[in-house]
Write the structure tokens for this entry.
Amino acid sequence: MKKDDCIFCKIVSGEIPSRKIYEDEDMIAIMDLNPTSKGHSLIIPKEHCRDLYEIDEEIAAKVMKTAKKLAQKMTDVLCCDGFNLLQNNGEVAGQTIFHFHLHLIPRYKDADNNLLKFTSVKLTDQEMDNLCQQLKNS
Ligand code: AMP
Ligand code: ZN
């Protein structure tokens, strides 16, 4: 169901313009308005859902299949050298638009890449073991 105050619902319905690169019955893909690399795009399911916690499993699977197809096509067309898929859930994770979307980010060897860098947190072996047990046994 469309959510009245959602930018991506408005893009899906055409109320807000976008540069669409793909569409099927369940989703669209559009170019990101503030690209982090040449070709940075977003896959957006047509049906409103907030994030990974809310998305229907079947739609989630279709999103990943579409990502595979588009990543190949974008690599062929744009001649990029690598690719990031990024999907943020929750404000704390960097989500700013609360309608599920998957970022498609082509990467180029010679570009000024805004690479996503992870800094590692220090955890003891005991903490790592505990986390592993917690996750495995839940
Ligand atoms: P996130 O931080 O994962 O929620 O990503 C939201 C993305 O949507 C950002 O990369 C924005 O640049 C992009 N964005 C916001 N408004 C628009 C719009 N009207 N058309 C295309 N992309 C947009
Ligand atoms: Zn929406």
Summary: Helices lie at 7-13, 57-78, 125-137. The chain is about 30% helix and 20% strand. The beta strands are 20-23, 27-31, 41-45, 82-86, 102-107.
